[in-house]
Sequence to fold (206 residues):
Amino acid sequence: MASRHSTADLTERPVRTRRRGAVVEKAISDAVLAELAEVGFGRLTFDGVAERAGTGKSPLYRRWPDTTSLVIDTLEKLGSDPDSYERTGQLRDDLIGLTRHMTASLAGERADAFRSLLGEAHRYPQLLARFTSQILEPLFAALTAVLLDGAERGEVNPERLTPPVLEVLHALVIKRALLDTHDLTEQDIAEMIDQVLLPLVLVSPR
Fold:
């Protein structure tokens, strides 16, 4: 009886080797980003992620109850940690440095994945809520903390740190870092800080 697969078929197929721990986790994370960028959240499945990662579905089903949890955990892990930025104590330098630190991971395929999520989030309230609370809010809180430190040093007018003013910065970061089609440059960040944020919050000279 003839074999179902010819020798050529077997040599052309990738051989799935046994992988463990961090290697599998990275393969899954890379697969999630690629699937988000290519097919979007609405069409992302465990099957697609497992196939792209070159692994079975068991590691996925053991750790995540649904694709929303899988996506959020992946993006949270790959996002920048604002607490790892070491402040200089100089307001402008820290605003630029922290923004650059935050947006460093929002480039290339990661940026495409984030854009895909934002484009579909209105149809998935649970995804939007977790995306906001676990990924965006910690970053925005870190920026606010830098401004509050500036207020304590007398550089920032604390009366100007109102929700609308802070939302201007948040919205600008989202727009420039996620919605624009090019990666954010150092010049882009400096322009945001110098032309928009600092004029809004600095103590006016007497």
